[in-house]
Amino acid sequence: MPTTKVETPLCDPLFEREVAKRLSFWWRQEGADLNHVLTRFADLPGHRVFSGPFPLGGAPDDDSAAALFALVTCVVSRERGAAFRRRYALAVRAALSTRIPVDRIFVSFEPTDPADHFTPGTAWAEPTQETP
Fold it and tell me: Distance between CA atoms of 116 and 93, rounded to whole angstroms?
């Protein structure tokens, strides 16, 4: 289940929905079931993230576009190669850059084993001695 977590001081439900829609369509083009694509947003006050000693979002009351940024973590199958991850990072940047400057979008990946994702629609094995 590909999961994209976007942490940003920009809190706009319409923007969030548009980003989620664009990323979901990208995944659909890659053959993923849209019901298994998660995009999650978390509010991250800019004055609480630092680049060296400097707040990444500027002063606490700075609402300008220059104060915007996004820290993005993508959880994808560890079988996805570097070229795939780069294509997805570019898709994330394109989706976010309608409101956030491209030079302030940071994307990282957490490769995972798909067998470690348990969703409401999957069959969960009964606990055994090996799986408590």
Answer: 27
Residue 65: the pLDDT is 63
How far is it between the farthest Cα atoms of the chain? 56
CA distance 76 to 51: 27
φ, ψ of residue 5 in degrees (nearest 5):
-110, 120
Structure confidence by residue, pLDDT tens digits, 82-97: 999 999 999 999 999 9
The answer to whether 8 and 107 are in contact (CB under 8 A) is no
Model's pTM, two decimal places? Answer: 0.84
Report pLDDT digits (tens) over 32-53: 988 889 999 999 988 888 889 9
Gap between the Cα atoms of 28 and 8, Å rounded: 25
Question: What would the two tokens of residue 34 be?
Answer: 């849209």
**What count of residues does the chain have?**
132
Q: What is the rounded CA–CA span in Å between residue 132 and residue 130?
A: 6
